[in-house]
Amino acid sequence: MEMISKISKGSRMDQIYIPKNRTGFYIGSHVIIKPLEIKKTPEKFYSYNAESIEPAKIMLIEDIFRVIDSIISYENIIITGSFLDSGFNFRDIDILLISGEKINKNKIEKSIKNYVKIDNHIILFNKKTFFEALKIDPLWRLMLSRCISKYRLTPIPKRRINYKILDLHL
Which CATH superfamily is domain 46-169 in? Predict the structure, then answer.
């Protein structure tokens, strides 16, 4: 027989309460107390060229996704930048947030900062401008070459060269 109970704080000892109407556990019988393993389903996300990520960073990514889920609706969340490098030599977490609605970026950044205690930098896009930026800007293509996203990324559009943007970056 198994019973599930919760540990309560007592004045001298912590206590576990079990109901009086029970079968199999008699007064004076020896029992084993061990923690209950509740299997939490891990957050599903997609990794692109970032296979070896530390477990602590995976927990941070799940927390970031959870915080953003509780605040707004979105089309995709993409985490990129130095956060995905091995080790903990990063200053902030770069987050691309793709959404079709008007979003208060400062509110989201503050919520993430309060929850995970790490600086973050959110870049907002709508779907149309995001794919237009991927077509003409090589820096955005480079950022997406190594990233983690909440939902699967659609194929990157064919490159279109815009010499003005290339001159701007050079």
Answer: Beta Polymerase, domain 2 (3.30.460.10)
Q: Give the Cα separation of 58 and 133 in Å (integer).
A: 28
Which two structure tokens, joined as six digits, stand for 90? 């990063």
Q: Taking every pair of C-alpha atoms in the chain, what is the biggest distance, in angstroms?
A: 84
Domain ranges of the chain: 46-169
Q: What is the pLDDT of residue 39?
A: 67
Least Cα distance to 123 among 155, 139, 136 occurs for 139
What is the reported pTM? 0.69
Any residues with CB less than 8 A from the CB of 28 and at least 6 apart, and which?
Answer: none
* Contact present, 123 and 94 (Cβ < 8 Å): yes
**Mean pLDDT score of the chain, rounded to an integer?**
85
